[in-house]
Design goal:
Elements lengths: L2 E5 L2 H8 L5 E5 L11 E5 L7 E7 L8 E6 L8 E5 L2 E4 L2 E7 L4 E4 L4 E5 L2 H4 L5 E4 L12 E11 L5 H6 L4 E6 L2 E6 L15 H13 L9 E10 L6
Parallel strand pairs: 1-6
Antiparallel strand pairs: 2-15, 3-4, 4-5, 6-12, 7-8, 7-11, 8-9, 9-10, 12-15, 13-14
Length: 236
């Protein structure tokens, strides 16, 4: 399986580990307001070598040529993604990392030691550095995702089912007035009895908590990726 890296937030990592998340949306480099729809074409010739390309039809509704906009940086269904996340590294010994999301300890031989460290203690230790996902070494990755579906769509067009597949959490209010079910608000959690009544609104708050409060309103084109979690590929 051909593997490419993908950097994920703490929320994404924890949601995947909990089994709630099997979709991820990433802004693409094909932003243009004139596009009313983007498709995805797959190429397998010697030039492209299994590449997914976002395309649009020059004259919608007619049999005109489709024009390529941007190749997916994630490959095609059947390819895989190795997850990079924020992590702590001991400046004296680079053979061990601690994941910022949950404190899991990973050894350089690629094994999860089954140990956890309180990362708050690392913040007070001058020998430990918090590092961005982009700097994570390949051997430290504990999550491998197999792509099952790839498409290009507007962020705001996400369905209720897809919002749930993005890993949002439900809320239950067991008040004296009766149980009320809703969806978590990631910008101001707990502000309302049931926060959001629609999964899309909950996902909007999640997106804005990661990308900024104006990021949803801009309604960018995104790569929407469905995946299955698979066993990590060992790396020496």
């Amino acid at each position: 399986m051909k593997l490419r890296p993908i950097s994920l937030s703490k929320f994404d990592v924890l949601a995947i580990l909990a089994g709630r998340k099997n979709q991820i949306r990433v802004p693409g480099k094909f932003q243009n307001d004139k596009y009313t729809g983007l498709g995805v074409d797959y190429f397998g010739d010697q030039l492209h070598r299994d590449v997914a390309t976002a395309t649009y039809r020059a004259r919608p509704g007619r049999d005109s040529a489709r024009y390529g906009i941007c190749d997916s940086p994630f490959g095609v269904p059947g390819h895989g993604l190795w997850v990079r996340e924020r992590h702590w590294m001991d400046v004296r010994d680079s053979s061990l990392v601690v994941m910022d999301a949950d404190g899991a300890v990973i050894a350089k031989n690629g094994s999860n030691l089954g140990e956890f460290i309180n990362v708050d203690n690392l913040r007070k230790n001058k020998f430990w550095e918090l590092r961005y996902p982009s700097t994570m070494p390949r051997w430290a990755s504990r999550l491998t995702l197999a792509i099952t579906l790839l498409r290009a769509e507007r962020l705001n067009s996400i369905s209720a089912a897809d919002a749930i597949s993005e890993g949002i959490e439900g809320v239950v209010d067991n008040s004296p007035y009766g149980a009320a079910c809703g969806w978590t608000d990631y910008l101001d959690a707990g502000s309302l009895p049931f926060d959001h009544d629609k999964p899309q609104a909950s996902y909007q708050s999640l997106w804005e908590s990661i990308h900024g409060k104006k990021s949803w309103k801009s309604n960018p084109w995104v790569w929407a990726i469905n995946f299955d979690r698979v066993a990590p590929v060992p790396v020496s």
